[in-house]
Amino acid sequence: MDKKIIVGLTGPIASGKETVKKYLVEKYNAQDCRFSTALRDILNRAAIPISRDTMQRLSTALRANFGEDLLAKIIANDASKLGANIVVIDGVRRPTDIEYLDKLSNFFLIKIDADSKIRYERMKLRNENIGDDQKTFEEFMKDHEAEADSLVPRVMEIAKYAIDNSGSKENLYNQIDEIIKKLS
User: Fold this and answer.
1) Are strands 86-90 and 107-113 parallel, antiparallel or unpaired?
2) What digits encode the pLDDT tens for the residues 51-87?
3) Contacts of residue 183, Cβ cutoff 8 Å, sequence gap at least 6
């Protein structure tokens, strides 16, 4: 690859963004950035339990006090400094994120989606945040209405590339490889 490719991943909760990121890191030696990394760091330093709720509350407070594009600025700066040919930005959720990230040369947005029942089962299995393994399907769907996740469908409409992650990992990996070929 001649130029750095910066790939933004968007999609609903448990759609497979992390799986796509890991595949790009392992197969293509990509480096990754995640919007929630800064939030998790602050919560860890403050000894506040990490949950979807605490991350959303912190994100809202930071953006309200320092600008809607604060986290996009942080992540764009981090992505620009990485030396890999492919940089993956995980968790693009807001139109303001795209406004800022689109200013980066060679930024491409990929939407990832899967059936909601499949995503629910994945969320419970991975148990990334406190209490995820105990959530009902209704609670899971309600999480999509939270401020941070409610804008994801609008961001997904902007994406130039799409991945359907309702099938096998092999199918997912084939879709990723096709997109990388187009971007290279």
Assistant:
1) unpaired
2) 878 998 999 999 999 999 999 999 998 998 999 999 9
3) 5, 7, 108
On whether the CB atoms of residues 73 and 46 are closer than 8 A, the answer is no
Identify which of 86, 101, 71, 92 has the alpha carbon closest to the alpha carbon of residue 157.
Answer: 92
Three-class SS of residue 40?
helix
Beta strands in 122-165 (DSSP E): 161-164
Question: Which residues have CB under 8 Å from 175's CB, separation 6+?
Answer: 163, 164
Lookup result for tokens 């148990």: 127
Tell me the two tokens of residue 157: 């409409």
Two tokens at 100? 């800022």
State whether the Cα torsion 116-14-93-171 is positive or negative.
negative
Are 52 and 40 spatial neighbours (Cβ–Cβ below 8 Å)? no
Q: Name, in order, each residue with C-beta under 8 angstroms of 126's C-beta and a sequence gap of 6 or more.
A: 14, 18, 132
Q: Which residues contact 4 (CB under 8 A, 6 or more apart)?
A: 84, 85, 86, 87, 105, 106
Confidence (pTM): 0.85
